[in-house]
Write a structure and sequence with these properties.
heterodimer, A: mainly beta, Immunoglobulin-like, Maltoporin, Chain A, 2 domains, 22-stranded antiparallel beta barrel, five-stranded mixed beta sheet, B: mainly beta, seven-stranded antiparallel beta sheet, 15% helix, 42% strand, globular
């Protein structure tokens, strides 16, 4: 799993018991896993030989035997309950026994978020962006990077503000975990992007479909896990420098990291990381500039890590701060203004290139402080996590008289704690039990624009997930009970006086999953899950103008929690060395699905406005994600991906609005080492076709205008190399997105009314690891 | 030692949760409607006389109870007559009532009153001219001359634009900018 890290943490010992020369493809190799400290055998770990596509489980002596291996380099993946997921490179040229000394799982837990360990076993349809993919997409926002995952799209406000959409669900219906902590950053608005710096991540995992039992309420659509790389294992200093430059908005990004493990105190290590980013207005096909769409970002992370053989702690602090310009023409006064903007072929607000960020703009600061303590004692592995998050969001509107102040100053403070036990095997059962708690306070400043009420919320939960293996089957059972209490102070009436509302929600949820290893190269899993989501403050109480869409949205205090029931079937099949297929099919029914229903027009001082009321229906979402890859030869690989979704309103017997259309992606990549100075040289080309969304409600024209934008095709290209100058590797790459400078708009982009998507963007990236 | 750490952390959380949980009622912030406009007043003085009339267009928004007070006066005017017109923009929800006109004049280059009469000409129509100018010599139209046509009925729309892109535009669709106020008076010429 964490390929990078492995060579550093493993003491690899090779002892050739039998050594005799043999011809190709006749080597019989025994691999034996031992604990590094006490030489105990590690049983029940899975060993996968990537090149040979061989899989086996270690026996009581921690051993497996593979026959008929050819001479060559092999990547051996090891995972299991007792060991950290690991990859080792082995050169095999003779029959023999290879003894691998691994640290016991608890020794490295301090390095890796506890969820990581559990996820290794959670049966759920998942897809990952590894460090390599993250490196070749560096500089993009986290949401843009997630688009690389089949079944994930984005809901955006132009090119700079985007949030992920998993299987058609977004905002509060998906969870993002930043280093194991549930990100609480006011994601209720479409214009609220997740406040996470992707440079922190070494791996990003998307769990598709409901994962509420482990991760808590709201995870109806899925979970995004953003995980930093484990801290340095060796003594001494290490680090890296990253730089990226983008042609379209003349954006520059610089990120640096240093880490150190003390020689005199090897249990202690720390890491510091920082990112700076600045971009200007972006350019549209046809040479137009999108006025006031610049971005500035300054992020910092500090970690201290201390561990002993059976316990450890981590103190983690991260700060994310950005300023985002919002296209001036997107803040419209009334319906007429909006129609004028829609009917104009070119942007109504003219601009040249500039780094200046005017009104409207947002300034957001997100602070996260996390303390984690873990202990391997008694019943198993205990962990205790406490985190405090503060999210401060300021929105500066276009004003008649600029008084220098923000019109919205939202502050969201969240305290979370978690106690988790990965218990020792009881018979054949292994699993996790835990307690979650949360306290949250959301408030704003006196005199702010009416947005959402200030509120306090308290939440607590108990959960247990147990796994049982028999033969080639693995069964997983999970249960959770949540309780949530809200106190909301809603300013209402003509005089906007605060009225207190209390809400209490409690709900059990459950999951049942079954995985079968049909044969060495084929597995299939089935997940039945149920999850729920309490209505959020904006859905209960919003009452006001939505400037981007020139409409009025009205909250509804009688909303019930959403209940989701889903069935997820996924399968990985490696036909042979050359061909592999990954498929996920899902069926999800959401009771009391909250959406905006058009209401009567309302007269305001700015003319008539369309109004929308929050209301509930029952929804059915079904779809598939398919990926097939083919290796033409050792260097050349092609991949095809298809993602389809059908979302219906079961009450109206009609399509649901604002759902992503079908999309198809074809990519091909050629990669090879030229010599010892030029390694992993690659060129790639990817084309994506996105259909026009024609599955829209029958009353679409009375809700929205114009109809969803036309289908489009995008071509991206990439090339890169890993330079080795003396011992120093340098990763360089150049990528071009929208190579054909296609003029297009996307249905899930709120700016589709006003602007085309950006034109060609060429990016140059450098990454220099320092050891 | 380790058990200790857990205990202390646990207790501190509980303590934190209880201390922040008091005295909330008083501390709640009150929002405000930003730069609210409720009322447009059109004062017409028959040229060369002192016969002044004031017409009101008021829409007070209060979403919780639907739209608040609405007052829309009808422009009952003499046919074939010239009037001197003055526009006043108010926020009547504020106490004392806030006169926004001075802010508009202060930022005159960022504002424009735009008029649309229906029908455009003939019986029941209204013509406008001689609008005052902003600091850069482009139209502002906060004061202007209004001329009524022959006997008939129609309507007169006054739109206040913020940051228009073309102040000399002849159609509302090409003026640009965003709308701060959009008031349509029914017209009766007799």
């Amino acid at each position: 799993m964490i390929r990078y890290f492995t060579t550093l943490i493993i003491g690899l010992l090779l002892c050739f018991v039998q050594a005799r020369a043999q011809s190709n493809c006749t080597h019989t190799v025994k691999i034996q896993l031992k604990e590094i400290h006490n030489n105990r055998s590690i049983a029940d770990a899975m060993i996968f030989v990537q090149e040979a596509k061989l899989n086996a489980q270690t026996d009581e002596d921690g051993a497996v035997v593979f026959e008929n291996l050819c001479t060559g380099n092999y990547s051996i993946h090891i995972h299991g309950y007792d060991v950290q997921d690991t990859t080792v490179s082995l050169y095999i040229n003779k029959t023999g026994t290879y003894k691998l000394l691994l640290p016991h799982a608890e020794h490295v837990l301090g390095q890796v978020e506890i969820h990581n360990i559990n996820d290794g076993q959670l049966i759920q349809s998942r897809e990952q962006l590894d460090s390599k993919t993250l490196r070749s997409n560096a500089g993009k926002t986290i949401s843009e990077q997630l688009k690389n995952i089949n079944g994930v799209t984005t809901l955006s406000n132009g090119a700079t503000i985007a949030k992920p959409v998993i299987h058609g669900l977004h905002s509060n219906r998906i969870l993002m975990l930043n280093n194991g902590i549930r990100q609480e950053d006011q994601q209720w608005g479409t214009e609220h992007a997740p406040n996470i710096d992707p440079y922190v991540a070494n791996q990003v995992t998307v769990l598709k479909g409901a994962a509420g039992v482990r991760y808590g309420t709201d995870a109806i659509g899925g979970v995004v896990l953003v995980e930093p790389s484990p801290i340095r294992w060796e003594n001494g200093w290490g680090g890296s420098v990253d730089a990226a430059m983008f042609s379209n908005n003349r954006m520059g990004v610089l990120s640096g990291m240093v880490e150190h493990r003390f020689e005199k105190m090897p249990s202690l290590a720390f890491r510091l990381q920082g990112t700076l980013k600045q971009g200007g207005n972006y350019q549209l096909p046809g040479g137009y500039w999108a006025a006031n769409t610049g971005v500035r970002e300054q992020n910092a992370v500090a970690t201290i890590n201390y561990h002993t053989a059976h316990a450890g702690m981590e103190l983690y602090y991260s700060r994310f701060a950005n300023t985002l310009g919002i296209y001036r023409g997107s803040h419209t006064g009334n319906q007429q203004d909006l129609e004028n903007a829609i009917n104009s072929d070119t942007p109504l607000v003219h601009a040249d290139f500039s780094y200046k960020i005017d009104r409207p703009r947002q300034e957001v600061v997100h602070n996260l402080l996390k303390y984690k303590y873990h202990l391997d004692k008694g019943w198993g592995l205990w962990s205790f996590v406490y985190a405090f998050q503060n999210n401060y969001r300021q929105e500066y509107d276009v004003m008649r008289v600029d008084n220098g102040k923000a019109q919205l100053n939202l502050s969201l403070n969240t305290h979370t704690f978690n106690i988790n036990l990965d218990h020792k095997k009881i018979g054949k059962w292994s699993g996790t039990v835990g307690v979650d708690g949360q306290y949250q306070h959301n408030t704003f400043k006196d005199g702010d624009r009416v947005f959402i009420p200030s509120y306090y919320s308290y939440a607590a939960a108990l959960y247990a997930i147990e796994r049982y293996s028999f033969g080639s089957y693995k069964l997983e059972l999970g249960a959770r009970y949540d309780y949530k209490h809200f106190e909301m102070y809603n300013p209402q009436g003509v005089m906007l006086t605060n009225v207190l509302y209390l809400f209490d929600y409690s709900n059990p949820s459950a999951t049942v999953a079954l995985k079968k290893q049909i044969n060495k190269s084929w597995d299939a899993s089935l997940t039945l899950a149920n999850a729920w989501r309490a209505p959020q403050a904006s859905e209960l109480f919003s009452a006001g103008f939505h400037q981007g869409a020139a409409r009025i949205e009205m909250g509804n205090k009688t909303l019930k929690p959403e209940q989701s029931y889903s069935l997820n079937l996924s399968s990985n099949y490696a036909v042979n060395e050359k061909r592999a297929i990954e498929a996920t099919a899902y069926l999800q029914r959401i009771q009391h699905f909250i959406y905006l229903k058009p209401g009567a027009d309302l007269l305001t001082i700015r003319g008539y406005y369309k109004t929308f009321d929050y209301t509930q229906t029952n929804a059915l979402l079904k779809g598939i994600d398919l990926a097939a890859s083919y290796h033409w030869n050792k260097h050349w690989q092609s991949t095809a991906k298809v993602s389809m979704l059908r979302a219906t309103d079961l009450v109206q017997k009609d399509w649901l609005i604002l759902m992503p259309s079908d999309r198809y992606k074809l990519s091909t990549r050629y990669e090879r080492d030229i010599n010892k100075h030029f390694k992993e040289c690659f060129v790639g080309l990817a084309g994506q076709w996105v259909n026009q969304q024609k599955r829209i409600p029958a009353n679409f024209d009375s809700i929205d205008y114009p109809r969803p934008p036309a289908a489009y095709f995008l071509l991206d290209a990439e090339a890169g190399v890993q330079l080795h100058i003396r011992q120093q590797p340098i990763y360089c790459s150049i990528t071009a997105s929208n190579l054909l400078n296609a003029k297009y708009r996307d249905y899930l982009d709120v700016f589709r009314y006003f602007l085309d998507q950006p034109g060609t963007n060429i990016a140059l990236r450098f990454n220099v690891p320092i050891n | 030692m380790k058990k200790h750490t857990i205990k202390i952390s646990f207790l501190s959380i509980l303590l934190l949760a209880t201390t922040v949980a008091c005295n909330k009622e008083k501390d709640q912030p009150t929002p405000d409607e930003q730069e609210l406009i409720t009322t447009l007043k059109l004062q017409l003085t028959e040229a060369t006389t002192t016969n002044a009339q004031t017409f009101v267009y008021k829409v007070e928004n209060g979403f919780e109870n639907g739209t608040g007070t609405i007052v829309i006066d009808t422009l009952k005017l003499k046919a074939n007559t010239t009037y001197d017109a003055v526009l006043t923009v108010l926020n009547e929800k504020a106490t004392p009532v806030e006169d926004i006109t001075s802010e508009i004049i202060e930022k005159s280059d960022e504002h424009l009153f735009f008029f649309t009469a229906t029908p455009q000409s003939g019986a029941g129509s209204i013509g406008t001219s001689n609008g005052n100018l902003d600091t850069k010599g482009a139209p502002l139209n906060q004061t202007f001359m209004l001329k009524t046509a022959t006997v008939g009925n129609g309507s007169f729309q006054v739109v206040l634009k913020h940051q228009p892109s073309d102040k000399n535009a002849t159609s509302l669709t090409t003026v640009g900018g965003d709308t701060d106020l959009d008031a349509t008076f029914p017209v009766v010429l007799q």
